[in-house]
């Protein structure tokens, strides 16, 4: 079946502009995660959605970052007033997450954001 | 919260050699330990995982071992091939707390032909 998809695949923007990144999780997956990966670095957790519960926003680096998940499916990560340090690959992952021992995450291809 | 340490950060081996990557975790409640492989420019993909009720799991040339007492787990790759070259991430999570896994910082494995 279809995997996690993200759009756009690449985004170049000017400092100070707002950007929106989209994630389409695997159908039926209740959990959705956003991560940021700077060049050659690890996975920095940003935000987690699970079903209808309030999202865990503990990883968002500043109030310029926000995310929504509409109808328990598609998610949008918004970065306002972008800065050059926001340049990174933004990865989305989904998981079926049933109430048993941990679940595999399925990652999307990422959006490569470059802020000039 | 959970803290995952991963070593080494870089590992260079000759084709055919074995490679071992180690991770330690801090939260004794963690009970799910996946390993992800990320090839250059690609997305991370699960290659193997282990749950806390077992000590070892194998899948062809890869294996993972878990020592709950010492709170560490390791990835073993035997008969390495150039296509094994990638960044490998370990992670730990426990659904009783939060489903948010804590990732290690990654190991860049280079297999020389």
Question: What is the structure about, briefly put?
Answer:
The complex is a heterodimer of chains A (116) and B (113). Chain A has 116 residues and is mostly beta strands.
Give structural notes.
- The complex is a heterodimer of chains A (116) and B (113).
- Chain A has no helices and ten strands.
- Chain A is mainly β and 116 residues long.
- In chain A, strands 2, 4, 5, 8, 9 and 10 form a six-stranded mixed beta sheet that branches.
- In chain A, β4 (31-37) and β5 (44-50) form a beta hairpin.
- Chain A starts with a strand and ends with a strand.
- Chain B contains no helices and eleven strands.
- In chain B, strands 2, 4, 5, 9, 10 and 11 form a six-stranded mixed beta sheet that branches.
- In chain B, a hairpin with a 6-residue loop joins β4 (32-38) and β5 (45-51).
Keywords:
heterodimer, A: 116 residues, six-stranded mixed beta sheet, globular, B: 113 residues, mainly beta, five-stranded antiparallel beta sheet
Which helices and strands appear, and what pairs or packs with what?
The complex is a heterodimer of chains A (116) and B (113).
Chain A: E1 5-7, E2 10-13, E3 19-24, E4 31-37, E5 44-50, E6 65-69, E7 75-79, E8 88-95, E9 106-107, E10 111-115
Parallel strand pairs in A: 2-10
Antiparallel strand pairs in A: 1-3, 3-7, 4-5, 4-8, 6-7, 8-9, 8-10
Chain B: E1 4-7, E2 10-14, E3 19-25, E4 32-38, E5 45-51, E6 56-59, E7 62-67, E8 72-77, E9 86-94, E10 98-103, E11 107-112
Parallel strand pairs in B: 2-11
Antiparallel strand pairs in B: 1-3, 3-8, 4-5, 4-9, 6-7, 7-8, 9-10, 9-11
The separation of the N and C termini of chain A measures 37 Å
The first-to-last residue Cα distance of chain B is 41 Å
Order of helices and strands of chain B: EEEEEEEEEEE
Strand content of chain A: 35-45%
